[in-house]
Inverse folding.
């Protein structure tokens, strides 16, 4: 065994060399530790390593998700509707989003006739379109990549209060978060989601219910549906922020069906929502695209408004082509220590084909490279129509080219 006292028993010159060597080693180790401590201290004091990167989130919105007569007829197999193929071309795009939201414009009520069984239903004001589909429609939405749906729209009461309860049960069964219709008075009036560290609140309102709301008491309506009211919306927005929302997005069902023009009420409600604290406003119901614009608020904020995102899945053809021009709206947010703000906003133009590659009702991005000349020409024409419909205050999404 090597002993420390062996050093002292060595000849003087050798002992001196050994001691000198040990001193050199000690000096080197000490210098190394001092340098490391200095570098660590400098890094912590400089703030470079401690500076957090901004949080980011990519959100995507779509227009109305319908499951109407011809779609049901073509897809029905017993009690199952399989329309997943209609989303095959947009599924890869939606997969790039951290949160994808669509407007579910149908109830899912097995207690009432489905659309293919009964096209029209009787309301206090006469015959109305029946929008009711089987719950298996949700399989396609989950397959496509939708992570939440907003539900306030004019068809909420097509199957009555029972239809609302059954629709909400089905959404929960398919694990699809939602807001816009409610089971009870204590249900939250908004959906709050933590997306990559950014707390995003989603609110959903409608301005009309095909006159079926006349059949119910004010108390029942206040509990189960979300009719737009300025004071109520302001309170909901304030409550969402109080509960931690960094960014508030309001979806609202408004305007005139098949109209590309923005109504006076749309303008009024948009300004009210912006003044009440909404950060972003997304419209639906016209079943065609309406322009994008900005609301300016007294406190100096600029609030984007999409007056209508049109349809995203439908076989409507009331206004040739226009009912089937669609977009995926892309909103990128970033948040630093102070607030969440818009990093980028743009759209991906799409078109819905009634008959495409042997499938009925297929939504296809306009930049898809197709061998079929007629289909390719239809996409190019749709792309230009969409650009004109949305106006010159927005732009098409152009992904950065990947390096070779």
């Amino acid at each position: 065994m090597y002993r420390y006292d062996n050093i002292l028993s060595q000849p003087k010159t050798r002992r001196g060399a050994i001691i000198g060597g040990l001193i050199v080693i000690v000096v080197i180790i000490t210098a190394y530790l001092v340098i490391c401590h200095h570098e660590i201290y400098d890094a912590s004091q400089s703030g470079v390593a401690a500076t957090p990167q901004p949080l980011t989130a990519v959100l995507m919105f779509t227009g109305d998700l319908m499951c109407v007569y011809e779609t049901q007829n073509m897809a029905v197999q017993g009690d199952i509707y399989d329309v997943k193929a209609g989303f095959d071309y947009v599924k890869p795009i939606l997969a790039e989003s951290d949160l994808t939201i669509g407007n579910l414009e149908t109830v899912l009520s097995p207690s009432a006739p489905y659309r293919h069984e009964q096209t029209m239903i009787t309301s206090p004001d006469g015959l109305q379109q029946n929008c009711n589909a089987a719950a298996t429609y949700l399989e396609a939405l989950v397959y496509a990549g939708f992570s939440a749906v907003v539900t306030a729209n004019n068809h909420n009461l097509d199957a009555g209060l029972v239809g609302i309860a059954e629709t909400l049960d089905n959404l929960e069964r398919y694990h699809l978060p939602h807001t816009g219709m409610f089971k009870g008075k204590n249900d939250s009036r908004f959906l709050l989601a933590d997306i990559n560290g950014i707390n995003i609140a989603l609110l959903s309102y409608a301005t009309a219910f095909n006159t079926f709301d006349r059949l119910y008491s004010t108390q029942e309506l206040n509990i189960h549906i979300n009719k737009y009211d300025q004071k109520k919306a302001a309170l909901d927005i304030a409550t969402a922020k109080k509960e931690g929302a960094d960014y508030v997005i309001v979806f609202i069902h408004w305007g005139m069906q098949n109209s590309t023009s923005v109504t006076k009420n749309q303008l009024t409600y948009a300004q009210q929502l912006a003044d009440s604290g909404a950060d972003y406003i997304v419209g639906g119901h016209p079943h065609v695209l309406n322009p994008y614009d900005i609301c300016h608020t007294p406190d100096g904020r600029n609030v984007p408004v999409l007056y209508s995102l049109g349809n995203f899945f439908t076989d409507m053809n009331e206004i040739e082509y226009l009912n089937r021009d669609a977009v995926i709206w892309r909103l990128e947010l970033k948040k630093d220590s102070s607030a969440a703000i818009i990093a980028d906003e743009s759209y991906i133009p799409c078109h819905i084909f009634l008959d495409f590659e042997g499938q009925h009702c297929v939504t296809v991005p306009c930049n898809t490279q197709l061998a079929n000349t007629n289909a390719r020409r239809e996409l190019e024409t749709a792309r230009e129509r969409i650009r004109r419909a949305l106006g010159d205050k927005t732009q098409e999404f152009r992904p950065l080219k990947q390096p070779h």
User: Anything to note?
Assistant: The CA atoms of residues 320 and 349 lie 17 Å apart. The chain has nine helices and 18 strands.
